[in-house]
Amino acid sequence: MTSVPIVGQLRAYTVSLTGSSMFWVYDFLTEGRVCDRSLFSPKRWKKFFYYDSAGFPADWVDEVQIELSGAERKRPPTWKKCFDSQVANKEVPAPYRVTTYDYVEFYVEEDQLPQYHEFVWFKHKELVAYVKANLGQFEIITPREDQLASPVEALPEVAVFTRGCVYEIWLSGLERMELTEVEEIGEEIDEELQEHEAGEVIGVGGTDEDHHNIAVQCEPGMNKKALGCIRTVLKRLKANPETTDIWVQGESEKNLGLR
Fold first, then answer.
1. Strand ranges inside 172-252, DSSP E
2. So what's the pLDDT on residue 152?
3. DSSP state for residue 2 in the 8-state scheme
4. Rounded distance, CA 202 to CA 99, Å?
5. What is the DSSP annotation of 98-164?
6. Residue 16 CB: number of other CB atoms within 10 A?
7. CA atoms of 108 and 151, how far apart (whole Å)
8. CB of 30 closer than 8 Å to CB of 84
9. For residues 202 and 75, is the Cβ–Cβ distance under 8 A?
10. Are 108 and 187 in contact (CB under 8 A)?
11. Among 130, 99, 125, 94, which Cα is nearest to 112's?
C-alpha cells in the first residue's frame, strides 16, 4: 500500500492488485502518513485504474504490506466508450462496451455506467489531479498518534516499482485457427502467462469482423518471458504468421510477430 501526497499534509492511498499496473485508490485521505492496516479495507476502494509510468515519484511512500485474497486481486468490470462511427452505423447495440475479469463483453447505455469502472490509465500527476478534482468525495481522517507512519528516513529501503510493457496482439483469420473465438484465445494466453508468472491478459476486443485484439500486461522484468508465452500459445493454436502482429504499446516502429 502506497501513500500519495495530494495537497498540504493530505495523502491518498493506493494498493496494487498484481505488483504491476493495476491499482485501487481508497476513498479517504489522511492528514499525514499512516500505516494502520485496519484502515485499508477493500470496502474502502473507490476507483480502479492502471498506472502508466516507469516508477513511483520519490514522495510516494510504500507504507505497509497489504494481503489480498484471490477474489480481491481480480480487476472489476471496466467500460470503454465505443467509436462514434460504430455507434452511428449501429455496429454496436449500445455506446459503451463493458469487459469483465473473464473477458465477457457486453454493451450498456450511459445511465448504467455507475455500476462499472472506467478503463483508465493514470500517470502520477493525473492520479493527483483526479483526487484534487474530487476532494469532496473523499473522507478526511485525522489519525491518532499510534496510527502515524515513521519518518521516511527511518523506513527500510523498498524496491522501485517498474511496470512491465503492454503487448498489443492483432489477429485475423481466426476461422483457420484451433480456437475461433478471440475470448477463448485470450484465456489460453492468460493461462500460459499465469503459469509462468509473466503477466496477464487485460483486454480482448476488435475493430471489425476479422481484426481482433488481445492486450497483455507483463509483470516487471518479464517482458521477454511474456512474449515467449504469447508466441507459444499462438503457434500451438495455428495462428497465421502473415496476419498476426505483436506490438509494444506506445512503440509503432517494430512488429514482433511470431518469429
1. 199-208, 211-218, 244-248
2. 60
3. E
4. 9
5. EE-TT--EEEE-GGGGGGSEE--EE-HHHHHHHHHHTGGGSEEE---GGGBPPPGGGSPP-PPP-PP
6. 18
7. 47
8. no
9. yes
10. no
11. 94
Residues with Cβ < 8 Å from 33, sequence gap 6 or more? 3, 11, 61, 63, 148, 149
Find how far residue 102's CA is from the centre of its chain. Answer: 14
pLDDT tens digits for range 195-215: 998 999 988 877 666 788 899
Q: Reduce the DSSP state of residue 178 to 3 states and report it.
A: coil
User: Which residue shows C-alpha cell 474502502?
Assistant: 44
Cell of 117: 469502472
Q: Which residues of the chain have pLDDT under 50?
A: 154-155, 158-159
Adjacent-strand bridge partners of 204: 214
Phi-psi region at 4: left, alpha or beta (left = phi > 0; alpha = psi -120 to 50): beta
DSSP 249: T
The pLDDT value recorded for residue 136 is 94
At 102, which amino acid appears? D
* Alpha carbon distance 178, 182 (integer Å): 11
Answer whether 173's CB lies under 8 Å from 210's CB.
yes
Return phi, psi of residue 109, to 5°: -85, 165
Three cell numbers written together for 207:
475493430
φ, ψ of residue 256 to 5 degrees: the values are -80, -30
Q: What contacts 24+ positions apart, CB below 8 Å, involve 245-252?
A: 245/168, 245/169, 245/170, 246/167, 246/168, 246/169, 246/170, 247/167, 247/168, 247/170, 248/165, 248/166, 248/167, 248/168, 249/165, 249/166, 249/167, 249/168, 249/215, 250/166
Which amino acid, 17? L
